[in-house]
Write a structure and sequence with these properties.
Blueprint: H1 2-10, H2 22-25, E1 33-35, H3 42-49, H4 56-59, E2 77-83, E3 86-92, E4 97-100, E5 103-106, H5 118-127, E6 128-131, E7 141-146, E8 152-153, E9 158-162, E10 170-181, E11 188-205, E12 208-216, E13 220-221, E14 225-228, E15 248-253, E16 260-261, E17 266-269, E18 282-287, E19 291-293, E20 300-302, E21 306-316, E22 321-328, E23 332-333, E24 337-339
Antiparallel strand pairs: 1-2, 2-3, 4-5, 6-11, 7-9, 7-14, 8-13, 9-12, 10-11, 10-14, 11-12, 15-17, 15-24, 16-23, 17-22, 18-21, 18-24, 19-20, 21-22
Length: 350
């Protein structure tokens, strides 16, 4: 659960597993105490103390001072202390818990601190999905006509769709977006589908179903795709961590066509489940070094690349993934390289 992940953050003991010292594990400007405020996130809080916010799940150990630490709330205090020569993080419960014998009353879950800015992810997942095999589109249900011979339809209108549709079931209506391809081989990695709206299927005859459009962000057109609504919960498996194997990929695209990329923007990556990526994996972004001319030999040289940010995978598909830019020291671009985070070098959040 999200709450379990949050508990791990503040019950982290940096001395375990990695053997981090005061110098290795903490930021030089880490505070002694920090009071959690509304709007904080797991990443933001851990980044105030740790040089690498994504490292905390790898080194955590339950702090015996905290009993059943399921959630972190505004008003709780995170404090730094020494345990056997190593830095540890403790938690003092603030306004998030009121002890009333014989029960403990907690602030509702909706007011607890989130791991990352979830609204950005939820909004994106509501409007985007990927088909791994574009050839399968021919087998999916699709809009064949609007009611009264309308070319476009909207909320409250009726449409006709052809395909296997179950009466009474709600479906998503999608339009084909960008075709994601491998830059080197040209291989198709996935086909983006953009949400247009939702509709409920009614009675059907000879494979054609009458549907009522329940909501629409754009006009519904003939040939739009009709798919069962996708379950998109990001709860139990969402724990930020480095991949346990080498990853070498690139930023494939930015949904919406933006060229320069900043913090909290969604990016498409050219690696997916086939390459071992999972929800929560954190990748370093490396920008290619500039080309310069050797002043003595006249040779064209490529300068070493520069680490420029961190991306967290939140929705992996078979051959590609969607990720959220968590940190950026400069504007990122399509084509920037992705690899495992470097433990020796921190990235300053901008």
């Amino acid at each position: 659960m999200w709450g379990t992940g949050l508990a791990l953050l503040l019950t982290a003991t940096l001395a375990q597993a990695q053997g981090l010292s005061w110098e290795q594990g903490l930021r030089s400007d880490a505070p002694d105490r920090y009071t959690v405020v509304r709007g904080d996130t797991l990443w933001h809080i851990s980044g105030r103390f740790l040089r690498h916010p994504w490292q905390w799940p790898e080194v955590w150990q339950v702090n015996p001072q905290i009993r059943n630490p399921h959630l972190i709330y505004p008003g709780d205090v995170v404090y730094l202390y020494d345990c056997n020569g190593r830095p540890c993080l403790g938690l003092e419960r603030g306004q998030g818990e009121v002890r009333l014998s014989p029960e403990v009353r907690r602030i509702p879950v909706r007011e607890a601190i989130e791991p990352i800015p979830l609204d950005t992810v939820r909004h994106f997942l509501r409007d985007h999905r990927v088909v791994d095999d574009p050839e399968s589109l021919d087998e999916l249900a699709y809009v064949v006509a609007g009611n009264d011979r309308r070319i476009i339809s909207g909320a409250g209108d009726r449409i006709y769709a052809r395909g296997e549709l179950e009466s009474g079931q709600r479906y998503g209506i999608y339009r084909v977006g960008e075709r994601y391809s491998d830059a080197a081989t040209g291989e198709t990695l996935g086909l983006e589908l953009i949400s247009i709206g939702r509709a409920r299927a009614g009675h059907s005859e000879d494979g054609i179903a009458l549907m009522e459009v329940l909501s629409a962000s754009q006009e519904v057109r003939n040939d739009d795709i009709v798919l069962p609504l996708e379950e998109r919960e990001l709860i139990s498996e969402f724990v930020p961590r480095a991949p346990d194997h080498d990853v070498d990929g690139t930023i494939l695209a930015v949904p919406g066509g933006v060229r320069f990329i900043g913090r909290l923007q969604v990016v498409a990556l050219d690696r997916g489940r086939h390459d071992g990526l999972e929800t929560g994996h954190v990748l370093q972004v490396e920008q290619q070094g500039e080309r310069v001319v050797d002043p003595r030999t006249g040779e064209s040289l490529r300068l070493p690349g520069t680490d420029a940010g961190l991306v967290m995978v939140f929705r992996p598909y078979e051959r590609m993934s969607y990720g959220l830019v968590m940190q950026a020291t400069r504007s990122l671009e399509v084509g920037d390289r992705l690899h495992n985070p470097r433990r020796g070098v921190g990235v300053v959040q901008r």
